[in-house]
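Protein details
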Amino acid sequence: MNSVDLAFTPALEQARLIRSREISPLELVELYLERIERLNPLLGSYFTVMSETAIATAKAQTDQLTQADPVELPPFFGVPISIKDLTPVAGVCCSYGLKVAKNRVAKEDAGVVTRLRQAGFILLGKTAASEIGSTPFTEPRGFPPARNPWNLDYTPGGSSGGAAASVAAGLAAIAQGTDGGGSIRGPAFCCGLVGIKPSRGRVSMAPVGDRLNGLPTDGPIARTVADAAALLDVMAGYVVGDPYWLPDPNPSFLAATERPPGLLKIGFTTDFSPLGCADAACTQAVMDTAKRLEAMGHTVEPVRLNLDDLIEPLIAVWQTGVDVGVPWFVMGKLNRWLYWRSRKRSAGQFLTAVNQMQIASRRIVATLIDYDATIFPVFLHPTIRVGEWARLPARQMFQNIVHWVAPSPILNATGQPGIALPTGFTEQGLPLGIQLVGRPAGEETLISIAAQLEQDQPWSQHRPAIATAHPRS
């Protein structure tokens, strides 16, 4: 197997190759570090590369491999993974995309990082994120913009833009991301990947608490449904003191990829009025997926959503997330604008917005509960150019963002799971995709449907041209 093929080998297969001693953790880490050194200056996908610690861990695991029984090794022993900048890793910079915090070092691991280490992953580095994770593009001041491996003029999305770019370009086997309004599903859509936003309570936010009424969650970004499902198995689970939680899947999310979903009732919509409707390309992706599922024997029918009561309270709750304890004047213009908007609300008004959001979310869940899954676009149009909205006034930029990402934050409000899947490419060669929306705690069904779609139309063989060139010897 050549180095490019190995870099794009699914994480589960890499784990198998390591267990069978066909490759070593050190070989894999050195391969990815070489690719990062060569391609990251073009892509801006990593803020911080953990070269020394990654190599040290890989050497230790390579030595361990010669002594341990492969059966006793953790599931992703020796597999390299990237971690989003917003997620703390002890002893490593965690800037939140803020120029003034470039050298801010985290004191402890996030709970999800602890789980990744326990699963045997090797941490390659911290991937680029938008400032405080607030935009669906990754262009924080003081950092190079993250770029889409399929076309460097375009964004890989945000706020997990660097995470998606790292996987799409073969700079990591798999990635951890976070999603507070589409920040996993959007970058997966922009980069032609699989991204799962789990149900509320599926993945612990330990050791911190909940700041935004359960809007954000950690989740996986991968090239295959099986990889994403297996990574969710690692991430999921209750930690003592969590404000809400779900039981573990039985037997596992990975097992759901091998189980036929049966014949299901599936809805679809491309209309998210009053925010707007999907453009022709994203509408076609939804309709094509509906036709494919219908051809598989599923019952597929249109759904109409009423978002009138959700939009304003959701925005009111979400925008408070920019208040992260740093002075307003160190933020970019959009976050400054959001900061002062949120500061105009009293605590009582915030709690009223939370209550209104919950009531509207109940109505949406009630609309979708009769369906085993519903097909949404991820965003209302394909990815934008790097810097396309940078010169706009903050209010106009925010309006553009809200109308672009409209389908995705709905699930952060309702707490439902969603999985973004690639479906093809635009005429310009940029990825297209859809998201499957599940019932609360319905990840297993979504994953089973996604695996069925993937088997019918495989996509992981697609690779960006920039990522397939072999290094010069």
